[in-house]
Design brief:
By secondary structure, this protein is mainly alpha-helical.
């Protein structure tokens, strides 16, 4: 689970960087990367919820 949390943090940092580039500089490519990262984060968060429920049942 710690690995998953580290991956989520890494993906969020990439998302935040690209989202800032899009909003501050109007960088369209960064916006595309940010949207892709947000989908990746969403999938990892679903996996986190699943693992978290399993851990709480123990």
């Amino acid at each position: 689970m710690k690995d998953l949390i580290a991956k989520i943090q890494e993906a969020y940092e990439a998302f935040a960087k690209d989202a800032a580039l899009q909003t501050e500089n109007g960088n369209k490519a960064a916006g595309t990367r940010a949207r892709k990262a947000s989908l990746s984060i969403e999938k990892m968060m679903k996996e986190f919820r699943k693992l978290s429920l399993e851990e709480s049942k123990k």
